[in-house]
Amino acid sequence: MVADIGYGVIFIAFLVALYSVGAAIYGDRTKSAGWVESARRAMLLLWPLISISAAALIYLLVTNHFEVSFVYEVISRDMPTYLKITAWWGGQAGSLVFWSWLMSAFASLVTLRKWDRDREFLPWVIVVTSLTTAFFLALVVFYENPFAEFWRGPDGKLIADASGNAIKSMFAPMLNASLAIPTDGNGLNPFLRNPGMIIHPPMLYLGFVSFVIPFAFAIAALITGRTDDRWIRITRRWTLWAWLFLSCGLVLGSRWAYDVLGWGGFWGWDPVEIAALMPWLTGTAFLHSVMIQEKRGMLKQWNMLLIILTYALVIFGTFLTRSGILSSVHAFAESAIGPAFFTFIGITFVGSIALLIYRWPDLRGETEMKSMLSREALFLLNNLLFISVLVVCFWGVVFPIISEIFTGQKVTVGPPFYQTATGPLFAGLMLLMGVAPLSAWGHSSLKTLGRAIWKSVIAALVITIFLFFTYTANPIALVAFFLVAMVILVTLQEFWRGTAARMKAQSENAFTAFWRLVGRDRRRYGGYVIHLSMMLMAIGILGINLFQIQTQGTVPVNSSLSLGGYTVKYDSVAQFPGPDGQQVTRAVVSVYQGNNYLGDLYPRIDYYPTEKQNMTIPGDRPTLKDDLYIILVDWQPTSTNGATFKIFVNPLVNWLWIGAIIFLFGIIFAAWPDRDAERVPARSHHIHQPDANQTGAAD
Amino acid sequence: MNESTLSTPRRGVPLWAQIIIWVSLLALLGIVAVELNRSQQGQVGRGDKISNFTMPLFSGYELNGQNQFNLADYHGKVVMVNFWASWCKPCEQEAADLEQAWQFYRSDGRVVFVGVDYVDTEPKARAYLAKFSITFPNGPDLGTRVSQLFRIKGVPETYFIDPQGILQYAQIGPFSSVDDIKSIINPLLK
């Protein structure tokens, strides 16, 4: 009954979404405000409708309705209630509902804004967002229905197809059939039972979904021919929030991999990780290049291309994960939605590129690039570097497929390929992070740049030389640490320069001056905080990639293993049932540094009998210097209680997580709504009246 | 994108550029379509003719002294292809049973076992083989070629090819006993 309501409502939502697309197009063609308003209201109806359907699904999950196939697949009786709720996005069908639900929420938010000055965008924004929502709803309605149920024939047997698989359907497949109710379900994949994993998918989905909004405005601008920077100003904050969610999703995913996958790393260049990174790369490039359009009226074509690419990559990434085309830790079970997805990608991609080509002449820049060292030139270079990283990633994902088509052999490109190819590009991006904030809009010369940067460069060199004598002689590490030091110093200098200027000009004390400085231009200083956090993250990434050491050994009780100055003594092991139906095997080890006792760690293996799956959960001891990370590989209860441990020492890796937290803070700071976000000074004022901070080195 | 080259107003994208854009876009969609089609085929099924493949074997796990396994060489015999990995816990359930079955058939000479180590590292794989005292031929699935051929979805999976080279049975997941394995091979020997 509840399942029927859930399905019925989602079907109605699908029809409403289609209606809203049709009404918006008709309203725009006939210049009828009434039809457009009707389309807008239809779009506002989507979120409440999908919420009802979602509530039905959650109800079925929490109350163990195993006759519903989705419930049977993702939960079991022994799961705690909060996991039963989050299992909503633990499987293909449910997560499509979840995606549609988020999409409709964002669509509603955008329609609720004031439209006075941008009325002509409205119908086309509705068309794009409603069409995207309708597509995801169609996947739920026609392909992956979470409400489909199992049935039993009049003979009492489960109704199955020829190959023995139980038939799932909304309606009785034969006369006198009744619902088949299994006693228990399969349970949620143990990998998804980690708190980080509970928030990681929603964050990624939020990031993906919110990028649809800038895309919708871009398409509206292309269709209506209003190709000035209005669409960018409206969506600037959306883009920042989208970027925040996507970044948050990536960081949580990395942390989860580090905590749960037990291979001592956080990023494996898995195709699905790359699929999520690719829109992040174009999104980051977009965030930078829109500033050039706002300030200088340039790169309009490029910005359109970037937002179209970002949207396409969002959809493409979702497609890769869900169609079963890739094998990966992230892949959903095999599914029939591939062809539908493929068609949707084809239509949106071809449609938006055609529109872009049609409007190409209208998107010409208002000014030309005058200096290769101007800030706009450096921003463009930054964009090209981001796109190069994207090309490397894209090639890595597509190359195995191409090679299979042309040579018949599947090759996989591993982490070494990505690391070698993207390393120099990331170094280039770091260099730009150091130089670009010092360059001026319009015009900079080597002389002005040099004057602004020399102090930081010399200080960074001193730090690097110090590191050479005290820490490492690895040339890659030294170059990277030099860049990190330079960027940090340049950025701090920028904060100091602005504060000092205010202290002098407004005779404020240092604290007030600093507070007002960053408060007045939060996008700029939030951006600098993000740069600083990126450098902290870079320290962590360099540490784990260049200096990680590991060892493995089997030891009897009371014996120890040593690595990197740590001694790990195996004390005991115990088996006991866990709170979540799993069988826990937990070792106790004590950690010493020299003769100093530092504490106990508890690496463990959780065995989930229902799912027949093991989870290896490391014991780790984080410090700013390094992270001691111990995995219980195996243990033998009989042969004198020996156990096998794998031990990693991951130097500096915790700076990655510290940096990530500052990074998220930086984005929130930059994206937080102003009291009047819409009132932005016209561009011409910006060019002709640059304040001291805006021009940086030119003063 | 290059602002300075577009000097005349209302000049659109040149035809050659449009052609390049559309051709590469279609090529990309084509590639994805091919791959999608492939992934929709599903696993190989009973009655499929298995095309020939070769794979290297770990030293110490050769077959008749050869460090290469070539399926065509064993035409006329029953071939059991078992996909496994050292990181795969369910594989451990069946490892001892597989070895026991191999000891049962090896003197007969009409049955060949080959283990395909899927996405793994050699030291770990060797430790696994040693742990379960496995003696039948085993080798790495370089470039996942063999698993691609069988379109496996995970490990363990086991495929039984009859003397005519036709797939007769596919076991998804581990075997529960050595009799399980025998009950599949024995009918194929008749």
Jot down its keywords.
heterodimer; A: 699 residues; alpha+beta; Tick-borne Encephalitis virus Glycoprotein, domain 1; six-stranded antiparallel β-sheet; 21 helices; flat; disordered C terminus; B: 190 residues; alpha/beta; Glutaredoxin; 2 domains; 7 strands; elongated; disordered N terminus
Tell me what the structure shows.
- The complex is a heterodimer of chains A (699) and B (190).
- By secondary structure, chain A is an alpha+beta fold.
- Among the domains of chain A are: 1-188, no CATH class; 380-542 and 668-673 and 690-698, no CATH class; 547-654, Sandwich (Tick-borne Encephalitis virus Glycoprotein, domain 1).
- Chain A has helices at 2-29, 33-62, 69-74, 81-86, 92-112, 122-143, 195-210, 212-224, 230-261, 271-296, 300-322, 338-359, 375-407, 415-435, 446-470, 475-506, 510-520, 522-547, 654-671, 683-688, 692-695; strands spanning 149-152, 168-169, 178-179, 549-555, 560-563, 566-577, 583-593, 596-601, 604-608, 613-617, 619-622, 626-635, 643-651.
- In chain A, strands 5, 6, 7, 8, 9 and 10 form a 6-stranded antiparallel β-sheet that branches.
- In chain A, strand 11 (619-622) and strand 12 (626-635) form a beta hairpin.
- In chain A, helix 5 (92-112) runs antiparallel to helix 6, helix 10 (271-296) packs antiparallel against helix 11 (300-322) and helix 15 crosses helix 16.
- The N and C termini of chain A lie far apart (72 Å).
- Chain B is built from 5 helices and 7 strands.
- In chain B, the strands form 2 sheets. In chain B, strands 5-4-3-6-7 form a 5-stranded mixed β-sheet, covered by helices on one side.
- The model of chain B is unreliable at 1-8 (pLDDT under 50).
- The A-B interface holds A 298-299, 301-302, 305, 323-325, 327, 334, 336, 338-339, 342, 345-346, 349-350, 353, 357-358, 360-361, 364-365, 367-369, 398, 401-402, 404-405, 409-412, 612-614 and B 1, 3-4, 6, 9-13, 18, 21, 25, 28-29, 31-36, 39-40, 42, 89-90, 143-145, 148, 153.
